[in-house]
């Protein structure tokens, strides 16, 4: 597997108190627990609060994020960033391509159209073994990767807003 270590980003713009939405697809419960553990550890070290919404599968994640963002804005408690977590494992049909590509496209559309800091932690793998290699709670955890990406984008957004 390609080296999963990431060069630490230099931007340390304060995001203490940021509200982060996590939308998780609990298709593989135990793998999801590991991804969520990795993401929560990153949010804790960044001083951000979080809410978790659970959906049936990865295909539902983008819509759930859009619904939750709008509801939070209406309630006067907007989210500052979002993290998508899930695991899509290839089966016997082309459904894998649909679920993995459409969930990813939906997240990208959201991030671009709303200029919204978002991390994609949806694993798209051929086997559960590949998923576990990317979900175990360590520096390889893709849940932690997605949280770091969302945090990095939020720091950029806040820094540029002050510029
Ligand atoms: N096969 C996987 C799915 N499939 C379900 C879809 O995400 C969706 O919930 C369904 O098509 C109804 O709209 N979801 C995963 O998250 N992981 C999979 O491996
Ligand atoms: C990613 C999926 O939807 C997949 O797990 C479904 O399996 P299959 O393609 O055999 O129906």
Automatic annotation (TrEMBL):
One of its GO terms (cellular component) is riboflavin synthase complex. Keywords: Riboflavin biosynthesis, Transferase. InterPro entries: LS, LS/RS, LS/RS_sf. This is 6,7-dimethyl-8-ribityllumazine synthase. It catalyses: (2S)-2-hydroxy-3-oxobutyl phosphate + 5-amino-6-(D-ribitylamino)uracil = 6,7-dimethyl-8-(1-D-ribityl)lumazine + phosphate + 2 H2O + H(+). (2S)-2-hydroxy-3-oxobutyl phosphate binds at residues 92-93, 134. It holds the Pfam family DMRL_synthase. HAMAP family: Lumazine_synth (MF_00178). 5-amino-6-(D-ribitylamino)uracil binds at residues 27, 58-60, 87-89, 120.
């Amino acid at each position: 597997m390609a080296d999963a270590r990431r060069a630490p980003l230099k931007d340390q713009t304060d995001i203490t108190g940021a509200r982060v939405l996590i939308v998780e697809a609990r298709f593989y419960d135990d793998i999801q627990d590991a991804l969520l553990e990795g993401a929560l550890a990153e949010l804790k070290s960044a001083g951000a609060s979080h809410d978790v919404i659970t959906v049936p599968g990865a295909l539902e994640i983008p819509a759930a994020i859009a619904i939750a963002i709008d509801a939070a804005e209406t309630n006067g408690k907007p989210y500052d960033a979002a993290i998508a977590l899930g695991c899509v494992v290839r089966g016997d049909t082309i459904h894998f391509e649909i679920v993995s590509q459409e969930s990813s496209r939906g997240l990208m559309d959201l991030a671009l159209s709303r200029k919204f800091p978002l991390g994609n932690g949806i694993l798209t793998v051929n086997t559960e073994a590949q998923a576990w290699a990317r979900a175990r709670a360590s520096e390889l955890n893709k849940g932690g990767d997605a949280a770091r990406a969302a945090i990095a984008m939020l720091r950029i957004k806040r820094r540029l807003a002050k510029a």
